[in-house]
Specification:
The chain is an alpha+beta fold. Helices cover 32% and strands 25% of the residues.
């Protein structure tokens, strides 16, 4: 399959009839379509399958097999598609602060992208499962609003080499439009911090391996699924479904594997077989 064939298949996967314009509006449209079509999820980890982040594996999983993935998979695919469109980009690594208590220093386990639009640097992130993050120009104090009722702000907080990073992404908005980790907040809350240091493929492999295999982390101990909505956010943590829209929020507990599979297919556009759902630790212990 050629690069143009892959781009066509990707655009079909995310529901765009044609390539976007190569400007900030086009990037925003592409990223929103990606996040509203391809769920963030870690279910292969919970099924004991390795997470591969090379381009062929990621394309096969997220596009051909119409599954989701987490940041290393999502942003590998997004990076490849941006490059095919003609937008040069490179990966960055970030520390995720969302939901952490004070005094805890998280590792650099989130991947995002740095690209250039109209001669200026921008961050693009199609793989942050905690909430919807729009493309943002790399400018101290810049803010962006999203349809889920949140505002996002970038602040320069340090210099190159600082342990906590050079840049901090903050969010202010309804905690119901996150994956459940956020504390109730109307004011700014840190999401993740990063610097602009070059990232080698081996760095990504190391981060992916740690994130997908270390015991007792969020991804190896919980079942996590989320997806952006046109006016909100939906998340499934263990058997707890939460859906936030402009008109209001709803929550419910899924009853059994059949209910779980129906919600995966209907709300998150994910198709797992009955056997796969039954093998998830969430249900296997009760089988």
């Amino acid at each position: 399959m050629t690069a143009s064939d892959r781009l066509a298949a990707y655009l079909d996967r995310i529901g765009l009839p044609q390539p976007p314009t190569l400007d900030p509006a086009g990037l925003a449209r592409l990223q929103a379509a990606h996040r509203q079509a391809i769920a963030f999820e870690n279910l292969d980890i919970r099924l004991g399958r390795p997470i591969r982040i090379d381009s062929d594996s990621v394309f096969g999983k997220l596009v051909t097999r119409r599954r989701g993935g987490y940041c290393f998979e999502q942003n590998r695919l997004f990076s490849d598609m941006l490059a095919t469109l003609g937008l040069v980009n490179r990966p960055l690594l970030a520390r995720v602060w969302l939901g952490l208590p004070p005094g805890v220093m998280p590792p650099r386990t989130h991947m995002l992208l740095l690209t250039e639009m109209e001669g200026a640097p921008w961050i693009a992130d199609a793989g942050f499962g905690g909430s919807f993050v729009p493309p943002i120009p790399l400018v101290d104090g810049v803010m962006r609003e999203t349809p889920d009722g949140a505002r996002h702000r970038l602040r320069r907080i340090g210099e190159s080499g600082d342990l906590t990073g050079m840049w901090l992404l903050e969010r202010a908005g309804p905690s119901t439009a996150t994956d459940g980790r956020a504390h109730p907040h109307g004011d700014w809350q840190p999401q993740y911090s990063f610097d602009l240091a070059p990232v080698a493929p081996a760095d990504l492999e190391q981060g992916n391996h740690w994130t997908s295999t270390r015991p007792d982390t969020r991804f190896t101990s919980l079942h996590v699924v989320s997806i952006a909505l046109s006016d909100g956010f939906a998340t499934l943590s263990e058997a707890e479904l939460a859906v936030h829209r402009a008109a209001g929020s709803e929550r419910r507990t899924l009853r059994d594997p059949s209910d779980y599979a129906r919600v995966l297919a209907g709300r998150f556009a994910l198709s797992l077989s009955a056997e796969e759902v039954a093998r998830l630790p969430l249900f296997a212990a009760h089988g």
